[in-house]
Automatic annotation (TrEMBL):
HTH arsR-type domain mapped to chain residues: 10-103
Pfam families: HTH_5
NCBIfam families: HTH_metalloreg (NF033788)
CDD domains: HTH_ARSR
GO molecular function: DNA-binding transcription factor activity
Gene3D superfamilies assigned: Winged helix-like DNA-binding domain superfamily/Winged helix DNA-binding domain
InterPro entries: ArsR-like_HTH, HTH_ArsR_DNA-bd_dom, WH-like_DNA-bd_sf, WH_DNA-bd_sf
The protein's name: Regulatory protein, arsR family
Organism: Parapedobacter indicus
């Protein structure tokens, strides 16, 4: 969030934070990540089998790049994208912590239900 005062008025701009969770939230971006996990591709190669415009694909690529999920290099006249799969470790850590939390909650619920049943 960016806050400043302009002409005696408070002006607030929301700055969009890009992270790995935003990257994987969209099914098209998940498909792109999956394609790039097999090796580097240019934008035209990424677009094969995706029924959308090159501009739409470029928008998804831009978001993935901002999220740190891919790296882009210029090779001649084309941009080549490469997956940075290690960024998914953040998701795996979150899933593991969530699984542990919910396992504990379900175990507690199970104990409660067993005690209630015995009464």
């Amino acid at each position: 969030m960016v806050v400043f005062i302009f002409d005696n008025h408070l002006v607030v701009f929301m700055v969009e934070r890009r992270d790995v969770f935003q990257a994987i939230a969209d099914p098209t971006r998940r498909i792109i990540i999956q394609k790039l996990s097999r090796g580097p591709l240019n934008i035209a190669q990424i677009g094969v089998d995706l029924e959308m415009s090159r501009q739409a694909i470029a928008k998804h690529i831009k978001i993935l790049n901002e999220c740190g999920m891919i790296s882009m290099t210029q090779k001649g006249r084309e941009q080549v994208c490469e997956a940075r799969i290690e960024r998914l470790e953040e998701v795996m850590d979150w899933v593991a912590k969530s699984r542990e939390l919910w396992s504990q909650r379900f175990e507690k619920l199970d104990r409660f239900l067993n005690e209630t049943k015995k009464r």
